[in-house]
Design brief:
The chain is built from seven helices and no strands. It has a domain of 117 residues. 64% of the residues lie in helices and 0% in strands. It has 173 residues and is an all-alpha fold.
């Protein structure tokens, strides 16, 4: 097999597995009317279902310290990816956030964008508070959004696969 054909086969297999996994998960609740569609650019760049969700949080009811932490979160995290990735991620425990931000801290340092301990603490404080407010206290609402984002991401993967299939040369040539 040629390298290009092998790569296409790997992509199709991975996409098929992802589609099977999400389709076999049972009925999907109806989409939230308040959940806006991601722009075509964001859909094309999405690596995770969470990338397709809202990229902002209404923090007006949060304590002043958490609102300041939110500003740090937006400034720091949007250097490398859309804030939607963290806002819509399924993680709720501070230990998980510490795990993921440790990797990102290394990446930031590698790219010359160091992340201070103070900024990291602010980001973690915001993510922990926000997780408690939106993902735990309103779990059913968050689960509905998460299910819809997964469905949309599945549709996006299907579109990507169809595009790859149309652009690939026929096998056996």
């Amino acid at each position: 097999m040629r390298p290009r054909t092998l790569a296409l086969a790997a992509v199709l297999l991975a996409g098929g597995c992802a589609a099977w996994r999400y389709k076999s998960g049972g009925p999907v609740p109806p989409p939230s009317p308040a959940l806006a569609q991601a722009t075509p650019e964001r859909r094309a760049a999405a690596l995770f279902y969470s990338d397709l969700g809202p990229d902002a949080v209404d923090v007006s009811a949060y304590p002043p310290a958490r609102r300041r932490d939110y500003e740090v979160f937006l400034r720091v995290c949007s250097r490398c990816h859309t804030p939607a990735r963290a806002i819509n991620a399924p993680y709720v425990d501070r230990a998980w956030w510490e795990f993921y931000t440790a990797r990102m801290r290394v990446r930031a340092r590698f790219h010359g964008d160091g992340l201070s301990k103070k900024d990291l603490r602010s980001v973690l404080d915001f993510l922990e508070h926000d997780s408690n407010e939106r993902k735990i206290a309103r779990a059913a609402e968050f689960e509905a959004v998460k299910s819809e984002l997964k469905r949309r991401f599945e549709d996006e993967l299907d579109e990507r696969m169809e595009k790859l299939q149309r652009s690939a040369p026929p096998l056996g040539r």
